[in-house]
Amino acid sequence: MPVRPIRLFGDPVLRTPATEVVDFDKELRTLVDDLTATMLDAPGAGLAAPQIGVGLRVFTWHVDGELGHLVNPRLTLSEDTQDGEEGCLSIPGFSIDCRRAAQVVAHGFDLHGEPLLVEGTAKLARAIQHETDHLDGILFVDRLDREARREAMRWIREAEWFGEDRPQVRLSPHATNGLGI
To answer: Do 32 and 111 meet the contact criterion of CB atoms below 8 Å apart?
Structure first.
């Protein structure tokens, strides 16, 4: 279970929709182990495969002492919303209030290909939505209103880790279920 480098804002893999997992094999189990080790080392509440450079629809989470993973997630979101602080391991050191659905029901699979249902509220709902967004090439800054996004981009441009290639945050081409731009 090696700790893998986390890709930072500006890396194109973070903007590329991930591919469905079709093989529930040893390589997938190794990926889940690596995601878990990397997330716990960071530490973070969640980590998606694209954040370590793997374009597969897999993520892990560690929320309120619960450790889990989900492969090929499909989400059903509540109409009720929650506002709360959100950050991202791919934008280290930055957090800001972000609106998300208050509850989520996630259908997917475990690392052995067995069907899995995860229901979450509060922080777990936020983490599941955040990580699923990563699988769709969406970053949480895409969900911010114009002023908050401007603040986020200003902070990112001034961050010590930010490289010379300064990518622009673009509007997401993906449905945001009324919770984004």
So the answer is: yes
**Cα–Cα distance between 125 and 17 in angstroms, integer?**
21
**Is there a domain that residue 53 lies in?**
yes
Tell whether residue 98 is among the known ligand binding residues. Answer: no
Give this prediction's pTM.
0.87
Our count of domains for the chain comes to: 1
Specify if 116 maps to a domain: yes
Domain that holds residue 141: 12-158
Residue 3 included in any domain: no
Domain contains 173: no
Determine the pLDDT at residue 178. 46
One of 20, 66, 85, 131 is an active-site residue; which one?
131
Domain of residue 31, CATH code: 3.90.45.10
Successive 10-residue mean pLDDT values, the chain, 181 residues:
91 96 96 97 96 97 96 97 95 95 98 96 97 97 94 93 55 48 38
The pLDDT value given to residue 167? 41
Instruction: Tell me which long-range contacts 39-46 makes (C-beta under 8 A, separation of at least 24).
Output: 39/89, 41/3, 42/6, 42/89, 44/89, 45/123, 45/127, 46/127, 46/128, 46/130, 46/131
Residue 112 annotated as binding?
no
Whether 119 is catalytic: no
- Does 88 appear as a known binding residue? yes
Please tell me whether the peptide bond between 43 and the residue prior to it is cis, using omega within 30 degrees of 0: yes
